[in-house]
Q: What sequence folds into this?
């Protein structure tokens, strides 16, 4: 082991705080996962502040375990401590952790925590071979958690906020057109549109078997006859120019060959059609991402565990990763595929950039 250079005592304390703060964040994330899974946030949202005894009476869970969980959540600032052993979930906390229909709800991202940590056990081999793991490596719960993480915004704001901002699209959807959602996942966005525009026909395409199973179950539950899901590996996107509207939400950076998919989209779309893209806000360089994005560290970590891993899950995969599809690259890939019009659409989303692309 090399001889250590002299350690600066103040920098040493700061560094220790940084490292063990990260470990503390991991522990808090695990507690958020448990609170979400066991319905503790919902109980606090619906019935108000509680002591561990009161929460145990409401939920039928063991008081001693709830007491420790409440104290951890209070110490982390997730819950507000009111004194005398009582804890409360604030209105902001209700929006983020308890109200599934709020566009800012993020509990779903924590629901995949066990699967993501399990993926970490398999990644040393990826570091050696270069090959990553597809999203289906996280199992059915991985597909459910991705759906829960992305669905609130699409269900709340896609139809009333986003689509009216795209010239001509709502009129086409109301009149009746063929629509494709490429990388549809469990179908949250597609089914939201299918319900709102019954005259149009909606087709979802994905390669995740777990997501497609959830998508079909969601379609059946919603009773929507104008939506259909396709396994892209056996029933690929038709390239005959039939679609008036195509969407791709939070998926291009995960793909092994996004350029090839974009070329297929171009061949699938009508001359007067529209391609609507949502992907992670990113900048061209590491320095820019770190300077401008307060979540950069989390996103680079997410990339190693899921996004980049998926994008390298086949030999020759492009491997863009979570922060890899910046606007300039998205524009170039679209132009290389034959699209001629590319514009950014600011919808005030904290994480996603939106693009409207036309032939």
A:
């Amino acid at each position: 082991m090399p001889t250590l250079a002299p350690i600066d005592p103040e920098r040493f304390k700061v560094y220790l705080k940084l490292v063990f703060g990260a470990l503390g964040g991991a522990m808090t994330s695990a507690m958020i996962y448990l609170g979400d899974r066991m319905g503790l946030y919902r109980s606090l949202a619906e019935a108000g502040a509680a002591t561990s005894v009161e929460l145990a009476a409401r939920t039928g869970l063991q008081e001693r375990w709830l007491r420790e969980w409440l104290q951890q959540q209070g110490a982390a600032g997730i819950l507000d401590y009111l004194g005398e052993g009582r804890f409360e979930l604030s209105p902001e906390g209700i929006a983020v952790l308890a109200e599934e229909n709020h566009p800012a709800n993020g509990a779903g991202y924590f629901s995949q925590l066990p699967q993501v940590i399990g993926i970490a056990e398999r990644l040393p081999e990826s570091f050696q071979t270069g090959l990553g793991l597809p999203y289906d490596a996280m199992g059915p719960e991985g597909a459910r958690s991705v759906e829960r993480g992305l669905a609130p915004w699409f269900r709340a704001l896609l139809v009333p906020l986003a689509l009216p901002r795209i010239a001509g699209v709502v009129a086409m959807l109301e009149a009746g057109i063929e629509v494709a959602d490429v990388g549809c996942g469990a179908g949250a966005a597609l089914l939201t549109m299918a319900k709102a525009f019954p005259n149009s026909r909606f087709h979802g395409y994905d390669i995740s078997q777990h997501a497609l199973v959830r998508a079909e179950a969601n379609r059946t539950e919603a009773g929507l006859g104008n939506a259909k899901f396709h396994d892209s590996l056996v029933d690929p996107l038709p390239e005959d120019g039939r679609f008036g509207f195509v969407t791709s939400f939070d998926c291009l950076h995960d793909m092994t060959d996004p350029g090839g998919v974009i070329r297929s989209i171009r061949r699938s779309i009508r001359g007067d059609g529209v391609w609507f893209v949502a992907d992670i806000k990113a900048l061209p360089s590491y320095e820019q991402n770190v300077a401008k994005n307060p979540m950069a560290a989390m996103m680079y970590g997410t990339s190693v565990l899921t996004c980049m891993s998926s994008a390298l899950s086949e030999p020759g995969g492009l491997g863009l990763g979570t922060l890899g599809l910046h606007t300039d690259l998205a524009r170039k890939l679209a132009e290389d595929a034959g699209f001629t019009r590319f514009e950014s659409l600011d919808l005030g989303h904290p994480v996603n950039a939106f693009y409207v692309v036309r032939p």
Observations:
- The first strand starts at residue 80 and ends at 83.
